[in-house]
Amino acid sequence: MRSKSSLGQNFLKNQRIVGKIIAFSRVEQGDAVLEIGPGKGALTGALLKSASRVVAVEKDDRLFELLKNQFSDQPGLTLVHGDVLDLDISTLVPQGTKVVANLPYNIATRVILRLAEMSPPPASMAVMVQREVAERICAPVGHSEYSALTVLLSGVFLCDPGFVVGPKNFFPQPKVDSQVIRLVPRQDSLPPSERDAYRRVVLCSFAQRRKMLRNSLLGLPGMTKQGLSDLARHAGIDLQKRPQDLSWEDYARIGRAYRQIIAS
Ligand code: SAM
After folding, report:
1. Are residues 21 and 46 in the same domain?
2. Which atom of ligand 1 is nearest to the CA of 111?
3. Helix 42-50 and helix 15-25: axis angle, to 10°?
């Protein structure tokens, strides 16, 4: 069966790495797990041994048929045929589900952001992504890789940068390194009611990465120069700073101040 690069099909072929991912995910008996893109079942089989229930979503018609045959006698497994981006995930899995996946690279960030929007979010996510995406997600404040993606996810999750997996562990081999990261919801995560304003502020700030916030934040809908100085005062932020110098808590305060300003 030819693999489809359009579906990010790089299959894990090293059982040692499979074991390492399962251990890193901290999945245990009693857990429900969501796997996105089970492919030929490398992780699925191992997950079925560790967890009580696995829901696996596969888009590829041929792989879905293959999985149905391969796992026909596994009562703990629900196979779902579809595009994960078109599905309402919260209807497929119970609250408290853990996500474990070797994500298709072309949609990895979209999938992670979608999962972060769930309320409540998954209990944890151990996901394999391109190394450069992992570096962006886990970057500390001020780092060159610190980005809108970092901040959007930081409002919900703490990131464990996990470990790097080289191309030789896959068939076909990707051109780049991969990394397995683990995201766990923070205790003090941003309340759902604040997420929309937070998202707008973060995206607007990083749209012009090199500019000072006093220039970029003027692009927010409804923002004026007076509004901007009110916002700086309410949020306690120095508008001479650039987007990569602010923590997610700073953005949370700006988001709250922005909501107040446009409501008044
Ligand atoms: N889990 C397998 C492994 O580790 O060997 C396969 C991982 S492979 C990187 C990504 C898998 O995601 C492929 O099986 C691919 O067909 C599937 N996939 C790609 N896009 C998808 C989508 N939008 N929804 C669900 N599955 C998708």
Report:
1. yes
2. 23
3. 40
In ligand 1, which atom is closest to the CA atom of 57?
Answer: 25
Residues with CB under 6 A from ligand 1: 7-12, 36-40, 42-43, 57-60, 63, 83-85, 102, 104, 107
Do residues 214 and 239 lie in contact, with contact meaning Cβ atoms separated by under 8 Å?
Answer: yes
Choose which residue among 59, 63, 65, 70 to substitute to test ligand 1 binding: the one with the highest number of ligand atoms within 8 A of its C-beta: 59
Distance 11 CA to ligand 1 centre (A): 8
Range(s) of the domain holding residue 213: 192-263
pTM of the model: 0.96
Strand partners, 180: 128, 163
List, run by run, the mean pLDDT of 10-residue segments along the chain (264 residues).
90 98 98 98 97 98 97 94 96 95 97 95 98 98 97 98 98 97 96 96 95 95 93 95 97 96 86
* Region at 186 (left for phi over 0; alpha for psi -120 to 50; beta for the rest): beta
Q: What is the CATH number of the domain that holds 201?
A: 1.10.8.100
Number of domains observed in the structure of the chain: 2
Rounded to the nearest angstrom, the distance between the alpha carbon of 108 and the centre of ligand 1 is 10
What is the rounded distance in angstroms from the CA atom of residue 50 to the CA atom of residue 119?
26
Domain end call among 165, 185, 205: 185
- Centre of ligand 1 to C-alpha 238, Å, is 44
